[in-house]
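Troubleshooting: if your tokenizer reports a length mismatch, compare your output against this known-good record of 192 residues.
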Amino acid sequence: MNLAIGDVLGFVTGLLCVWLTAKASIWNFAWGIVNSLILGLVFLDQRLFADSALQVVFVALSIQGWWQWKVRGNPLANGFGWTTWREQAILLAIAIVMAWSMWLILVELRGSAPPLDALITTLSICAQWQLNRRQVSSWYWWIAVDLISVPLYWSRGLYLIACLYVVFLALCVYGLRNWQQTRRAQSPLALA
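Known-good structure output:
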């Protein structure tokens, strides 16, 4: 297996970012920005155009999330939220429309995996939006992203990145449990 430097740096910075997110550290955003810049180039090289463009969106959303978490203080002390069923339905509808539209665009651009590339991108945007708002439900969306990403990246020969997403999956399960436990401890009546 021939590993490119981008794969290795993407692996290390991505691992650090998701680990810090699971631990509810504000520094996840700084490492997320670095990771997005690296993976943007890796995905562009693989003609995964939506995944590459997503990294630019992640940089912007990470800056926004960093600011939101800084203003609200430490999430372990100040709490996590949950999206309502209505918000989840709206996010799902947005994801469906965005994925369909992006799929059509990626077909025209001759991307290497238009439907999966579009789905990963839209689900990731919805997940990041919830993460920025400290919503426990973001982890479910990230888990879906990881389940789709692993086989796609493996099929593209991005073996280390595919393995990273397997680790992400485990960290997402850990993060979900950690955030749920923290939320329950902060509010015994919280349903998480």
